Structure formats: structure tokens, C-alpha cells
Amino acid sequence: MPSRRLVIQAVLLAVIIAALYGLVRLRRQELIDFAVPHRAAERFLAHEPLYRPSDGHYQYKYLPTFAAIMVPFTWVPKRSAEAAWFALTVIMAWGFVRLSIAALPDRRVSARVLFWLMLLLNGKSLVKELALGQFNLPVALLLLSAVIAVRNSRAVLAGATIAAAVFVKPYALVLLPWLAWTAGMQSVIVFGLVLAAGLLLPAASYGWNGNLTLLHEWYRTVTETTRPNLLGADNVSFAAMWTKWLGPGPTADYLSLATAVVAVAAGFAAMARRRQLAEPNYLEGAYFLLLVALLSPQGWDYVLLIGLPAYVCLVDRWFDLSPPWRAVAATGIFLTSFTIYDLLGRPLYARLTELSVVSVGAMLIAATLIRLRWRAIA
Q1: What is the DSSP letter of 277?
Q2: What is the pTM of this model?
Q3: Measured between alpha carbons, how far is residue 80 from residues 31, 77, 174, 242 in Å?
Q4: Cα separation of 174 and 139, whole Å?
Q5: Which three-class secondary structure state does DSSP give residue 31?
Q6: What is each CA distance from 336 to 11, 100, 365, in whole angstroms?
Q7: Do residues 360 and 237 make contact, with C-beta atoms less than 8 angstroms apart?
Q8: What is the pLDDT of residues 175-192, one digit of tens each?
Q9: What does DSSP assign to residue 231?
Q10: What is the pLDDT of residues 246-270, one digit of tens each?
């Protein structure tokens, strides 16, 4: 019976994946964010430059190492590789939601209820992740796995896992200060060794000087493309928030930096109170995962998907909050989850994104997490 049930579940999952992929392909020629690193992998095999301004908005912005990681997807036709990545993304989405719920200590709400609520509250980000062919889910799984590894006293694994996540998306570095505080220098040393080894990997194809050139071009591409994206409707970072409010300039830059410092300091303050709890790692990890989209200058709204454990924690501890803090949390959840073009219409959506309400909502969720820690609830 268990094997039969497993077969039925596998068939059902395959049908769901095929149906979802068919819906996406009805509206899109390709998974555009998958196409970018796929093209970079082809260039990697041909020893060609990876970073080209001529690629316009869809310039390759990942580290050179990620192009090497993507090489296996070039072994099959692009359409097949795209479908395979879509299927993997659906599986990772299911796994990330389930793991976020399973890892939560002292759970109050049933896993089934939390699962469906997380699909509702993070549906916007999940749809964009799937439709674009994005790579935030592997980062989310790796970072959450690092949090679980620290809880299980596996510092070496935690350091290696965070380093692996950096190769996919460099903003995984947001979790490094937390790792140093909770797991000690051994984990940081392992992180550094794995990171160094990965950064050297492209030298096998491009040579030492060629690899240095690639790293320089990566830095140039990221820095040159950041500021033009700050006024993008879907950018929810602190930098984008202040730029939308005040316009580009030094004042917005200083306030962005100050807000980031305060947010990180609040996380450290929460960690300073960790001895009050038997298992403090989940909330701290959830807090810094939520900050990823806010701290990265190119933090698009769907990057909030990485912060899904924060939503799990809030919903599960909902009735432990006072009514005023429930109002704060509800406002944050509504602004981040339901500021949707198709739901609100063009005029209202455009106005709300100009006001950076999604960024404000994420800040409210972060503040509520700190409140949970202050009351030793999580």
C-alpha cells in the first residue's frame, strides 16, 4: 500500500507540473530568468565572455561559478532543459514549504493548515518564481538547511551550505553574521574555504587571469545595473524604498544604509536574547531570510519567497500576539502578499508600488518577529 500511494502521488505531481508548465508556456515564449544563466553556461563551455552590456536588461549577474554549475542543462535541448528546471522548481517549492513547517519548533497550528496558508500568503512570489524560471528556491532551501544544521550542531555543514547558496545568489551572505554568532569560527572558516574553492573553479576553463577578469566583470555588471533598477515597480529593497520616496541621491543612499544597519542590529539584539528559548535558531534564521530582499539593492518582490519561514512563524504564533501586534502583522502580511497587479488594477497597483508598500509590509513582519523574541514566544 505505501508503494502504491507513492506511485499515485508521483503521477499526481507529474500531472500538476505538466499542467502548470503548459499554463506558463501559453503566456511566455521562454522562462526568461532561466534563459540568462543557460546562455551563460553555453558561453562558459565556449570560453567566451559571460558579462556583456549588449545583453541589455537581461545581463548575466550571477557569479562565474554559477555558469559552470548550469553546464549540465546545456547537455539537452534548451526546451527540455527549461522543462526540467520548471519541474525541479515545483518540487523545490513543495519541499521548501514542507521543510519550513517541519523545522518550526513547538508548533501550535497543524501542518496541513500551515501548508495551505503558506501557499496563499506566498502565492504571488511562488507564481513569479515559477513563471520566470528563477533561482531563489535553491537558495532558500540551502539557507534553511543551514539553519537546521546549526540547530543540530553541524557547524561545518552549515558553513558549506551557505557558501553553496552564495554561488547561486550572492545575497545569501546576509546569513553569514548569524552563522558566525551561533556556530562559531569553525563554520566561518569552512564557509571561506568552500567559497574560495568555488570562486577558483572557473579558472580551470578560463585560466587564472581569465577568472580574475570574469570576477571583475561580474562586479562591474552588478554595480552598474543596480541604480537603474531602484525605481523598478517590483524592487522592494531598502535602497529602492528610499529612492522612490526621495529620488536618487546621497540622502536616499545614507538613509538606505542607516535602515539596513538598524535592521541588522535588531537581528543581533534578538540573538542576544536567545538564551530564553530552548530552540532560538528558527526565528533568527527566519528574520535574516526575510531581510534578504530588503538588504539586496536588487531585491525584487518575489525574493520575499526566501522569507517564507517568517510567515510560518507569525501564523503559528498568531494567538500569542497581543491585538495591536496582530494588527501590525496582519498589515504586513496583507501588503506583502496581496499587492498584486491583477487583484488591484493598474492605477492602484502603480500608486502602491511607488509608495513601496511591500517594503513597509516586510518591515512590519520583521518588527513582529522581533516582538516574538522579546516576549520569548519564539
Answers
A1: S
A2: 0.94
A3: 12, 5, 34, 42
A4: 12
A5: coil
A6: 34, 19, 9
A7: no
A8: 999 999 999 999 999 999
A9: T
A10: 999 999 999 999 999 999 999 999 9
